[in-house]
């Protein structure tokens, strides 16, 4: 039997990452990472050591930690994730902040392409007064999103289908989306975590903008007077995204930058009718 300090040291070395080693060991033992401080000298039972070694081996082969543990935190919410859902990214929290700043009291919000439910659930958590709808084309992702809502005790209505089709006739004060926006031929799709994530959550045509164009075109029919559309995009898609709003019925568009100072979210408000 080996003690936890030694096991963590050798796994950190194998993974080149101490945090990942701790996350995988915490998952193996069903504890949180703080537990290690008081238990560094404890011996790990052989069965746990074997299970941990299997998790480390999967990570060494490239599988994302979040798919091995089945968890990822987003906006302080512990979310279940599976290979049917994108792993929520910290930069998407910018979209949540921008939406919260614009959502009126008792307002209605739609999250297009909800995946694990990350954006919709973060907004429902902060704004219990709001009506939050969320949809996805992937039934498997929606199952996970619904489980997350239940586990967190948050009220979000989920719909299945292609962009605005499941919410025909509905209008919202804000429509948000983190849609697929990577170019189909982008070599990054074959690298790192992206290799393991659903292609349907990632890529969108030759310039990566097919879904964004559909969302911008469909949004006016689903927004209230002076409602907002806000969507995430690639760091090099800010100008081209703003250009999609050039024609009426939109007021001037803006692009917000993420913590790494890269263009990340573009939005615009509907002109008054
Ligand atoms: C980049 S992921 C975002 C997931 C989640 N909102 C997040 O930020 O973690 C894009 C999501 O859009 C969904 N999607 C792709 N095409 C769609 C379509 N035509 N209609 C509805 N959802 C779609 C995918 O299944 C995926 O869950």
Task: Produce a short descriptive summary.
By secondary structure, this protein is of the alpha/beta class. It has helices spanning 4-15, 18-29, 35-39, 46-60, 65-69, 93-102, 118-126, 139-152, 210-218, 238-243, and strands at residues 2-3, 43-44, 71-74, 77-80, 108-112, 131-136, 157-160, 172-177, 223-232, 254-257, 263-269.
Descriptive account of the structure:
It contains ten helices and eleven strands. Strand 6, helix 8 and strand 7 (157-160) form a beta-alpha-beta unit. It has helices spanning 4-15, 18-29, 35-39, 46-60, 65-69, 93-102, 118-126, 139-152, 210-218, 238-243; strands at residues 2-3, 43-44, 71-74, 77-80, 108-112, 131-136, 157-160, 172-177, 223-232, 254-257, 263-269. It is α/β, with parallel strands linked by helices and 273 residues long. It binds S-adenosylmethionine. S-adenosylmethionine binds at residues 86, 88, 92, 113-116, 118-119, 135-138, 141, 162-163, 178-180, 200-201, 211.
Question: How would you classify the helix and strand content by structural class?
Answer: alpha/beta
Helix content: 25-40%
Question: Count the strands?
Answer: 11
Specify the overall morphology.
elongated
Instruction: Give the low-confidence spans.
Output: none
Strand content: 15-25%
Report the C-alpha radius of gyration, rounded: 21 Å
Largest sheet: 7 strands, mixed
Strand order of the largest sheet: 7-6-5-8-9-11-10
Order of helices and strands: EHHHEHHEEHEHEHEEHEHEE
The average pLDDT score comes to 96
Roughly how many Å apart are the termini? 72 Å
* Count of DSSP-assigned helices: 10
Instruction: List the bound ligands.
Output: S-adenosylmethionine
């Amino acid at each position: 039997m080996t003690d936890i300090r030694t096991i963590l040291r050798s796994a950190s070395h194998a993974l080149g990452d101490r945090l990942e080693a701790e996350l995988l060991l915490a998952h193996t033992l069903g504890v949180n990472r703080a537990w290690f401080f008081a238990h560094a000298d404890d011996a790990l039972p052989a069965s746990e050591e074997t299970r941990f070694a299997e998790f480390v081996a999967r990570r060494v082969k490239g599988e994302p930690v979040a798919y091995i543990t089945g968890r990822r935190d987003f906006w302080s919410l512990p979310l279940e994730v599976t290979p049917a859902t994108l792993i929520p990214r910290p930069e998407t929290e910018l979209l949540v902040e921008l939406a919260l700043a614009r959502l009126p009291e008792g307002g209605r919000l739609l999250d297009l392409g909800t995946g694990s439910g990350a954006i919709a659930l973060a907004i429902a958590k902060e704004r219990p007064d709001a009506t939050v709808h969320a949809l996805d084309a992937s039934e498997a992702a929606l199952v996970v999103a619904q489980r997350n809502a239940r586990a967190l005790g948050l009220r979000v209505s989920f719909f299945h289908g292609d962009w605005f089709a499941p919410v025909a006739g509905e209008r919202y004060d804000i429509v948000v989306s983190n849609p697929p926006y990577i170019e189909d031929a982008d070599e990054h799709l074959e690298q790192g975590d992206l290799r393991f994530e659903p292609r349907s959550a990632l890529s969108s045509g030759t310039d990566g903008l097919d879904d964004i164009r559909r969302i911008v075109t469909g949004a006016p029919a689903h927004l209230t007077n002076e409602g907002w559309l806000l969507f995430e995009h690639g760091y090099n898609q800010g100008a081209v995204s703003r250009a999609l709003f050039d024609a009426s019925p939109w007021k001037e568009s803006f692009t917000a930058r993420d913590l790494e100072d890269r263009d990340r979210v573009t939005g615009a408000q509907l002109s008054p009718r």
